[in-house]
Each structure stands twice: as structure tokens, then as C-alpha cells.
Amino acid sequence: MTILLYDLVGTDASRPFSPHCWKAAFALAHKGLKFRSVPTRFLDIPAVEDGATKTVPLIRDGDKLVGGSFDIAVYLDEAYPDRPTLFGGEGGRAATRFIERWSHLTLHAFIGQAALMDIHDMLGPQDRAYFRKSREERFGKALEEVPADRDEKVAAFREALEPLRTLFWKQPFVGGEGPLFGDYIIAGALQWARVSSPFALLQDDDPVAQWFERCLDLHGGLARRVPAAA
After folding, report:
1. Are strands 64-67 and 58-61 parallel, antiparallel or unpaired?
2. Where in this chain does the entry annotate a coiled-coil region (predicted)?
3. Which of 29, 68, 132, 198 has a CA that sits 20 to 30 A from residue 146's CA?
4. Is residue 177 included in any domain, yes or no?
């Protein structure tokens, strides 16, 4: 049975951009499970599965609905234990929660501001109105002002990735010789930026950029199939 993944998109249904939905997509592919992306726009979410969720990703696996990227990964590991693990055991699951918090505080905090207007421009008129109102309330300023200093702040963002950079001198993935869900958490954030914005987050010779290229090629090039924003 094909699993459904409700996947956030803008006007172009072929360009899912949510970091959380990408985490779920990577996790499903890692498990080798057949899934179908259901393009879902911001204002579509209240009607998804008769109001089952306020956010995406959400998956339907038979009669089971699971929301939230981390909970989806946990569910997949428990429901399909005979397929490749996403965490490498209970200790790995606990440690991955640290990676998730670090990603939110370091990656999402910068990307969510730097790519804000680019994300806005991907949306249709009604979603743009919703996005502008909700984000201006969150940031306390006009949408256009939020990413205005991204060129000045990107150097500090790159410096904050030094723990990852030094890790990749020793091993090819966060998970070791192969990827685990910790890799997908970070790759999901960078894919969010890649699909949404042409702004250069990383320099080409950065070990983090080289690791991300490896992630783009995983699972038959799942993430690379969506072209980068131009």
C-alpha cells in the first residue's frame, strides 16, 4: 500500500519546500517505502484529512495518521523494524533530538529569515496574504525588512556550522558511514533553502556543502529531482 505524504508547496505543485516535509520524505525513502506526495498549500491544511492536523507533514499509512516529522520517523522505525533503521537504536533516537533542537536554533533561525521573501514569492495570492500576516506578527516588522541584512549575517551563520564541518572531516554522514535521521533533519533545512531561494548559504568548497551534495544523491536523487531555485 502506498503511503500518502501531505507535502507543503506554493503555486508550483512539483516544488515541495518545507524542511519538515523533506525530513519525512527522506525518512520514507530511507525505509524503502512507497509513498506519494500530496501537494498541499498553506490554506489547504485545515481541510487535510477532515481537519486532522494544523501543520504538515502528515502521513496516512493505511488507517494510521501520523503528523510531525520526528514522530513520523519514530513511527516508521517502530512499524517497519525489518527495514533500515532511522536512529540506530534508542540511544540514537535520544541523541537525534539534540540535532533537531540545534537545527531549529541554528539553521532554521537564519534560513527562515534569509529566504523569507523568496518563500513568499513562491506562493499564490491567498497564501501570500496569510504568510505575510503571520510572519509579520512573528517578526514584528514588515516582511521585506526581515531578510534585508542576510548578506551581512551569512558569515556568522557559516561559522556556526563548524561542528558539522569538523565532523565531516572524520566521517561521510552524521550517522557515520551512512545516513540516519539526524542527517535528514539537517538536509531538510538546507533543501528548504535550496528549493526556496537562490541566496548562497554555503561556499562550494565547504565540507558541509559537499555532504549536502551527497544527501541530494541519496535514494535515487530524491531531493535533487527538484531543481534549485534560480
Report:
1. antiparallel
2. none
3. 68
4. yes
Name 229's Cβ contacts closer than 8 Å, sequence gap at least 6: 118, 194, 195, 196, 197, 198
Distance CA 139, CA 158 (A): 22
What mean pLDDT comes out for the span 203-228? 98
Q: Are residues 56 and 95 in the same domain?
A: no
| Residue range 157-207, pLDDT digits in tens | 999 999 999 999 999 999 999 999 999 999 999 999 999 999 999 999 999
Task: Residue 16: give its domain's CATH number.
Answer: 3.40.30.10
CA angle 124, 130, 133 (to 5 degrees): 130
Length of the chain: 230
Residue-wise pLDDT tens digits, 31-54 = 999 999 999 999 999 999 999 999
pTM summary value: 0.98
In the chain, beta strands by DSSP E: 3-8, 35-40, 58-61, 64-67
- Cα separation, 172 vs 75, in Å, equals 26
b/e burial code for range 115-140 (CB count within 10 A of at least 16 → b): bbbbbbebbeeebbeebbeebeeeee
At 230, list the grid cell: 534560480
Of 44, 79, 114, which marks where a domain is finished? 79
Radius of gyration for the alpha carbons in the chain, expressed in angstroms and rounded: 17
Using alpha carbons only, what angle is made at residue 183 by residues 2 and 119, rounded to the nearest 5 degrees?
75
Q: Range of 33's domain?
A: 3-79
